[in-house]
Automatic annotation (TrEMBL):
Organism of origin: Corynebacterium yudongzhengii
PROSITE patterns referenced in this protein's UniProt entry, alphabetically: CB, TYR_RECOMBINASE
Tyr recombinase domain boundaries: 113-298
PANTHER family referenced in this protein's UniProt entry, alphabetically: PHAGE INTEGRASE-RELATED, TYROSINE RECOMBINASE XERC
Gene, per the UniProt record: xerD
Protein name as catalogued: Tyrosine recombinase XerD
Compartments reported by the entry: Cytoplasm
Summary of subunit composition and partner proteins: Forms a cyclic heterotetrameric complex composed of two molecules of XerC and two molecules of XerD.
Length: 304
């Protein structure tokens, strides 16, 4: 059957029988038009003649760009494949096609995105941009403790903001972190983070806390510090430090892992410290470290 004819019938079915919204139908029409146009350019006027290889070539063209078209991200190409699959599946259901060749085609892999990190010097500049001396305000002491703990433990921002006073009482250099799925893990609390935490608990939190909240980190309204406020703490510190990179609280977690691996820690240990259920998740940081090693080697080796 002609692809364009079947596509119009399918879109009508989606609108009338399935009751899809106008916006969803618009997206479907865009993707199905792109697929039908690609088939027509390839000289295909019968959907029954399309093979799994044709669909794979279609997705490849979407990913790489064709005839000057903008290359699509894996997620966008994956959505385009879902629509093409839907057309083929509809053709089989209507008796127009004998085989659903699209079912054999896998969506494109999104690939791994290397996390943004700060260098050790940049982390130091970031942390030292928040004062802790006699002139420091209670908010300064809170902010410094927050940032020191994020980098010093590698914990997620939600995990740090979820800590209570009981969690840090008599910590003895060790914290129990409540991670994803309610899983607990033990992480060391470094001397710098412990020092900043103590300064906050003694000189700052009593000023901020006049209510009964047990949250460790409080805002100026005596409530638990929010994620949005924590994000702003980091942005302010980065601006003071002159760091122009786009960073978030998760950047400190990425930097923590990368610096540990660069310093000689093994992947399994870093996996436990980060609370990753699979070592595969942690191994992305080994690519960052390898890139750093390669850069140093290229600069230093006479035969590079």
């Amino acid at each position: 059957m002609n692809p364009r004819t079947l596509a119009e019938t399918w879109l009508e079915h989606l609108a009338v029988e399935r009751g899809l919204s106008e916006n969803t139908l618009k997206n479907y029409r865009r993707d199905i038009e792109r697929y039908v146009h690609w088939l027509e350019e390839a000289g295909t006027d019968d959907l029954a003649a399309v093979t799994a290889g044709d669909l794979e070539a279609y997705i490849t063209d979407l990913r790489t760009g064709r005839h000057g078209a903008r290359p699509l991200a894996a997620s966008s190409a994956g959505r385009a494949l879902v629509v093409a699959r839907g057309l083929h599946r509809f053709g089989v259901a209507e008796g127009e096609l004998d085989v659903d060749v699209a079912a054999e085609v896998s969506p494109p892999s999104p690939g791994r995105v290397l996390p943004d990190t700060l260098s050790i010097d940049e982390v130091s500049q970031l942390l030292e941009a928040v004062p802790v001396g006699e002139a420091a305000t209670p908010v300064d002491l809170r902010d410094r403790a927050l940032l020191e703990m994020l980098y010093g433990t590698g914990a997620r921002i939600s995990e740090v903001l979820g800590l209570t006073l009981d969690d840090v009482a008599d910590h003895d250099g060790i914290l129990r972190i409540q991670g994803k799925g309610g899983k607990q893990r033990i992480v060391p609390l470094g001397s710098k983070a412990a020092e900043a935490l103590q300064g906050y608990l003694v000189r700052s939190r009593p000023v901020l806390a006049t209510g009964g909240s047990h949250a460790l980190f409080l805002n100026t309204r005596r409530n638990a510090l929010s994620r949005q406020s924590a994000w702003q703490v980091l942005q302010t510190a980065a601006q003071r430090a002159g760091i122009e990179k786009s960073i978030s609280p998760h950047t400190l977690r990425h930097s923590y892992a990368t610096h540990l691996l660069a310093g000689g820690a093994d992947v399994r240990t870093v996996q436990e410290l980060l609370g990753h259920s699979s070592v595969t998740t942690t191994q992305i940081y080994t690519h960052v470290t390898a890139d750093n090693l390669r850069e140093v080697w290229q600069q230093a080796h006479p035969r590079a």
